[in-house]
Amino acid sequence: xxxxxxxxxxxxxxxxxxxxxxxxxxxxxxxxxxxxxxxxxxxxxxxxxxxxxxxxxxxxxxxxxxxxxxxxxxxxxxxxxxxxxxxxxxxxxxxxxxxxxxxxxxxxxxxxxxxxxxxxxxxxxxxxxxxxxxxxxxxxxxxxxxxxxxxxxxxxxxxxxxxxxxxxxxxxxxxxxxxxxxxxxxxxxxxxxxxxxxxxxxxxxxxxxxxxxxxxxxxxxxxxxxxxxxxxxxxxxxxxxxxxxxxxxxxxxxxxxxxxxxxxxxxxxxxxxxxxxxxxxxxxxxxxxx
Length: 290
Fold this sequence. Notes:
single chain; mainly alpha; two-stranded antiparallel ribbon; 8 helices; 5 strands; globular
């Protein structure tokens, strides 16, 4: 849809001002649901941008408007998709009798696996509460159902098989130690990168800078990849998969790793486009490869 800027104000008129005028015409709209572009190929305009900021703009020029549909807050989606797996996993862990008709206690491996799985999502909930600073306030509400289906569904499959009375842990004790160590390494690295990202963006802003390592050795991976938080998360799930040796845990690692790689490639591309002096040797997520 094309929106004329004629009679919208002066060169000091901002995109937010135009949004408010548009809302008066269509009351079902609200700012986070609305997107404006200078052309169909351009990126979305910031709410703070003013008509006078664009040399080619004049009274009567048009903006390209898109209704993004019903929106929901990022933090709300994060809470839903991360809290769900905690309860989903614990259902099979705590209700083995009603679900499997099983008698007897869980094994040490099942207990540790529960701590690993639930611990990961508790960490993610706490990060959402105290660490994450989102560049966008909302996302399409449809993502809530899609994301929850993905996380909750995989949690149910993984927990069902890990906590099954017939579950057989890896025969090699070394695999258990390797899996647990890999998991802990990935979790610490992921948390360290999230902390680093938080410090790069002042509270209440959408400031973007070139990600760089700090004094934490885990952040040295920033020298090699743009999204080391995804790299460490994939490592963490690889460790969980080795520890449990359950097919659905490995499948979740592959599917999740593929999705994170796709996100990383997009962010890496944006970094290179936005910053002229972006380090040329960096890859998106996999050091030296991709």
